[in-house]
Specification:
This protein is α/β, with parallel strands linked by helices. The chain has seven helices and nine strands; from the N terminus they run E-H-E-H-E-H-H-E-H-H-E-H-E-E-E-E.
């Protein structure tokens, strides 16, 4: 397994937390693949030999910027289309969707570069739905209605699995689109 952090993690605090988490499931060999100051392109081959690549939680805009800066989107897409398993948590899961526009709305960021995600699914993902305030949730609903974008919003502890083209919702997922 390989772990890609969404932000700088020189002390490996978040990485070690996930190592402990995955050890509970019998996964012992986990590679840290940094996109920041410890980035080493020579490790891409090792990354691609992983059974699973985990995209960590964190700021989805910064994560998108780092993936694009290191030209990793096409690497991860190739891995996925060759049968590799990608796992994303929070900001990492956002990278599988159509864009990071929901987070640009929240922060007021306008750079088009940050919109680039892996685009593996034809919807946008909003994690931590239970934590967002009512004003922001209303903006997200309006965005879904006016743009025709489908948004899957998950509360903490809930999620989505996509396997062989089939979507499975785990927990209480809110679906927003122009038809609702």
């Amino acid at each position: 397994m390989s772990y890609i952090p969404s932000t700088e993690d020189k002390e490996k605090i978040y990485f070690n937390s996930k190592v402990n988490y995955y050890r509970n499931y019998g996964i012992e060999n986990i590679m840290f693949f940094d996109l920041y100051s410890e980035f080493e392109p020579t490790k891409i081959e090792d990354l691609l030999s992983s059974d699973i690549i985990h995209l960590s939680a964190g700021n989805p805009l910064e994560f998108s910027r780092a993936l694009n800066h290191r030209h990793m989107n096409h690497v991860l897409l190739d891995y996925y289309y060759r049968g590799g398993i990608l796992v994303g948590v929070s900001g990492g899961a956002v990278q599988f969707g159509r864009s990071t526009k929901l987070f640009q709305m929240f922060t007021g960021t306008t750079s088009e570069v940050l919109f680039q995600t892996l685009g593996l699914v034809d919807f946008e993902f909003l994690p931590h739905y239970n934590r967002w305030n009512t004003d922001y949730k209303n903006k997200v609903w309006e965005y879904a209605k006016t743009t025709g974008t489908t948004i899957y919003a998950a509360n903490d502890g809930d999620g989505i699995i996509i396997e062989k083209g089939k979507l499975q919702m785990i927990g209480d997922i809110v679906v927003m689109n122009s038809e609702l």
